[in-house]
Amino acid sequence: MLTSLRALPSEMRQYLLVTGNYWAFTLTDGALRMLVVLHFHQLGYSPLSIAMLFLFYEIFGVVTNLVGGYLGARLGLNRTMNIGLGLQVAALAMLLVPSAWLTVPWVMAAQALSGIAKDLNKMSAKSSVKMLVAKGEEGRLYKYVAVLTGSKNALKGAGFFLGGALLALLGFKGAIGLMAALLSIVWLVSIIKLKQDLGKAKNKPKFTELFSKSRAINILSAARMCLFAARDVWFVVALPVYLASQFGWDHYRVGGFLALWVIGYGAVQSLAPRITGKASGLVPDGRSAMLWAGGLTLIPAAIALALTGQLGLASAMAQEAALLAGLLLFGAVFAINSSLHSYLIVSYASDDGVSLDVGFYYMANAMGRLLGTILSGWVYQAYGLAACLWISTALLGLTAVISVGLPKREPCNED
Fold this sequence. Notes:
Layout: H1 2-7, H2 10-42, H3 47-53, H4 55-75, H5 77-94, H6 104-132, H7 138-193, H8 215-235, H9 238-246, H10 251-275, H11 286-307, H12 316-348, H13 354-383, H14 385-403
């Protein structure tokens, strides 16, 4: 196997290394999210309190994406990726302290460090793909981005299941210790093997160049912010707590179902180029993003109507089935939207200092996640899951409207 890897072109070996780093990180990130949600729900924390544990995770994600893009352009994406891996190990280690130290401020601080790590790692991985695909090969770029993004989300789903399973098998500290040890090994391999000048800008950017000057990137970033707020407003806190409290699901069922959801979501993302027409020579543009966002808007509205009995579903069993079916459909269509956006930002980004544009875009992504996380805890606690779904519907409608301003282009024929 090692001989086969050495026979691959250098760019492909680097792509596989970047993808492997991203996979390992994402597995621990998904597991940590589920561990924290389920562990602190078990301890009696309210949904809003649990949401607040992730507040700094999302806040620091906003800052990290903006500053991280600048650092990636100046220092190289290998360094920002390795810094991210190292910080995640440190964040996990923070949670190995005695139980009496696991106060809300301490866990929030650990989550802040994890948020910085996650966004450094993601920005580095997504930016690296642009450097490893020849200029003008838009179809290949779309495929590589879709595979990277889809496989990452499949691993995140596996992380959700892993988090629930490890919590039941090893307890909170045992699970955290195992993940910290394994990720440390990945980090050391990455430090040794990852190319030193990957993504370093020829012209060193100034700190004043952090904000994108591209109209297309600004519009796409606004759409991305609304898209991810629309997902997280009901998925991050409200949904797992609802499944546990209203349907009586245990840790295995909550973690397992959400894991399968995200794995399926990642699989659809990987297939997005085929679904959206690349096989027919069609590479997506702003029109594609608008239409797919418009279609997604209908799904949370339908779920909300089902949960409030407006569709004639009065029994708890019927509402549970409607929620789960709607969630699966939402995941598939959301995956297409996310994959389209991930391709468009890499395509729109400038070749020199790509991480600046990608970092700005993922700053908007993090702002959407922050907004969605806060609303998920607060709205669910005050008004219930149906209210979260109606807010999701409104945000998705706004995503479609914003996407009208994205550039359109003619189809391009490409292998």
